[in-house]
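chain below, 236 aa
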Amino acid sequence: MKLSVLIPVYNEEASLREVIDRVLATPFEKEVIIVDDASTDATPKLLEEIAAEHPEIEVRTHEENRGKGAALRTALESFSGDVVLIQDADLEYDPGDYPALLRPIEDGVADVVYGSRFLGGRYARVHLFHHYLGNRFLTLISNLVTNLNLTDMETCYKVFRADVARRLDLRSKTFAVEPEITCKVARMRARIYEVPILYAGRDYAAGKKIRPRDGVWAILALIRWGVFGRASDLRD
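prediction:
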């Protein structure tokens, strides 16, 4: 089984190399597709160096900043693996969780796996309470719209069988891509599992990018893709 790891990147010079090292250390045949969303720090130079060192890494670049959703759409255009996994470029999520995330797919019981920060992983950083409330509220609205019983819709760690990933046809450019993905895999009637993951959340001083307005975009996305979504929103 070949794993395609998709990494959207924007101004992550401080953590990028360590994240890549952790991803490459995982015990799977893999390709890594990194999309630099017009970073303005040293990220582009770092990516040149990393790609030269590791032929299994493909780097694609946006000429202007377009958002996480747009970066994932670009990455999904060229993957070749049997399983697709989304990895953020910060250090909040640990690639050491890959074996647990892939196990339900390897066992043939899941089409999609979400890594939940709220199911009781090995440990999680005690962090901002309003972020917690926001995540739980958005997950609640998502579950009402999709009739799923997820504990963590907004998680970065989403893993798909290749046939599911190819049908997503992502349209959201921003962090609204998370509810869009959830609405679409629910519409596919995919078999979705959750597994607990380690989480070391960072604060705004450390580079956290999500803002309160992203919650508004997430609710609008749930209405667009959940309430008014159609079968034609998916690729055949």
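The chain is about 40% helix and 15% strand. Strands lie at 2-9, 29-36, 57-61, 83-86, 112-116, 158-161, 192-196.
thats it, cya
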